[in-house]
Design goal:
By secondary structure, the chain is an alpha+beta fold. The protein has a single domain, classed as Histidine kinase-like ATPase, C-terminal domain (Heat Shock Protein 90), CATH 3.30.565. The protein is 35% helix and 26% strand. A five-stranded antiparallel β-sheet has the order 1-2-3-5-4, with helices on one face. It starts with 6 loop residues before the first strand and ends in a 10-residue tail after the last strand.
């Protein structure tokens, strides 16, 4: 990330840490995101973090490294983990998803929610770490309609 991070934190990969993480992110972004803008950002973050905990760690313990940078009116968030590697081709799968969120879907629903929440999402693996980079700019972000 190009700017000095507004937040850099390492948290246990545990579902009970998710609300604490979102509170930290709310404080870090409060000068550029209104409360109503933060809601969509929070939904996307919760979905990403929950997916990481469920799929990368399953029954193992680990941590998430979270960096949040403010770039003008834009928030750039990087979440890294050393859990089980993301599936090959996850970015292509994500990019090919349509925008419809099927509430009854067993697979892919979380990715569609993430897609609706952020302007840009990149999934990649670097130096043995899974990384998810997202960009969000409040009122300029897509509108979530389920």
């Amino acid at each position: 990330m190009s700017n000095e991070p507004a937040l850099h934190v390492t948290v246990p990969a545990s579902l009970d840490q998710v609300s604490w993480l979102t509170r930290l992110l709310r404080a870090a972004t409060s000068n550029i995101l209104r409360d109503d803008e933060f809601i969509l950002f929070e939904i996307g973050v919760v979905e990403i973090v929950n997916n990481i905990i469920e799929h990368a760690f399953d029954t193992r313990t680990g941590t998430l490294d979270v960096t949040c940078a403010l770039e003008g009116a834009r928030v750039r968030l990087l979440i890294s983990d050393a859990g089980q590697a993301m599936p090959d081709g996850i970015q292509s799968i994500f990019d090919a998803l349509d925008d419809e969120v099927d509430e009854d879907a067993v697979s892919g629903r979380g990715l569609r929610i993430i897609k609706k929440c952020f302007e840009h999402v990149a999934f990649y693996r670097q130096d043995g770490l899974n990384k998810v980079m997202v960009t969000y700019s409040g009122s300029g972000a897509p509108v979530m309609a389920m």
